[in-house]
Amino acid sequence: VLRLAVRKKQTFEERMEQLEALVSRMEEGGMTLEETLTHYEKGVKLAAELKKEFAEVDVPEIMKVLSRPKA
What we know:
By secondary structure, this protein is mainly alpha-helical. It has helices spanning 12-28, 33-55, 59-67. The mean pLDDT is 85.
């Protein structure tokens, strides 16, 4: 039986927290070289995804939404 993993789309904040956790873990030390490289690769991938998503943010649209009067 073939099982497909269904991955929940993480929010920007959740992915940022994941990146911070990877960095913290690497800063603590005590990992093997292989573990460090794996964490580094995951971190680079996450950072690239976050940078791309952040670059696509429509700042003028966000400012309009934030400046609307609250009901």
